Amino acid sequence: MSENATFPGDKLASIEEYEAGYNTFDDGDMVRAATVGEKDIDKTSRVASIKHPKVLSIPKVGDIIIGTVAAVMSSMIAVSIDYINGEPTTSKVECVCGTRNLRIRNVALVNDIVKLKILNHLNGTIHAGISEPELGILLTKCRKCGGKVVSMRDAIKCTECAWIDERKLSTNFGKSDFVKLRE
Ligand SMILES: [Zn+2]
Q1: For 64-182, CATH number?
Q2: Same topology for domains 5-51 and 64-182, yes or no?
Q3: pLDDT value at 9 more than 70
Q4: Phi/psi-derived region of residue 18, left when phi > 0, alpha when psi is between -120 and 50, beta in every other case
Q5: Which DSSP category does 53 fall into?
Q6: Which of 21, 24, 65, 160 is 20 to 30 A away from residue 48, measured at CA?
Q7: From CA 111, how far away is CA 140, in angstroms rounded?
Q8: How far does residue 148's CA lie from ligand 1's centre (Å)?
Q9: Mean pLDDT of 76-85
């Protein structure tokens, strides 16, 4: 790799001197790389970008994303982004979503499909929210047996083993048009 090679989170320039261009984000202080690629610092237009062989899509604040839950921690989930505003993306950018204030057991499970809204980019991490009604789980399974679940108010019930559990469900939970979207 050349000396211009970048990794996600690398500092490119101060936001006082440069604007965040393609495949970058600003963390409130620095313009940082959002992906691997090659630095492209345009001194004329004062824009810092990353050249990448594939077009990468970094969601912007306010964007609605649909992704796959990659990890579940005690106070947050990590989500690998599959769609941004309904457009598929193959860049596998991840965002995190705080879940502590929801007071729900098992907000999400790994491999659940979830709809989130991008809140901000902070310290090299994309943060998303889940609290609005249409945000939340679109597709999940029974934690006990992996069976199909149906929603009952805020809870879900397994159609195979009758296990009742909680999730932060989207108002779109169980709608079939999303299944088509994934095919
Ligand atoms: Zn079950």
Answers
A1: 2.40.50.140
A2: yes
A3: yes
A4: beta
A5: S
A6: 65
A7: 8
A8: 7
A9: 93
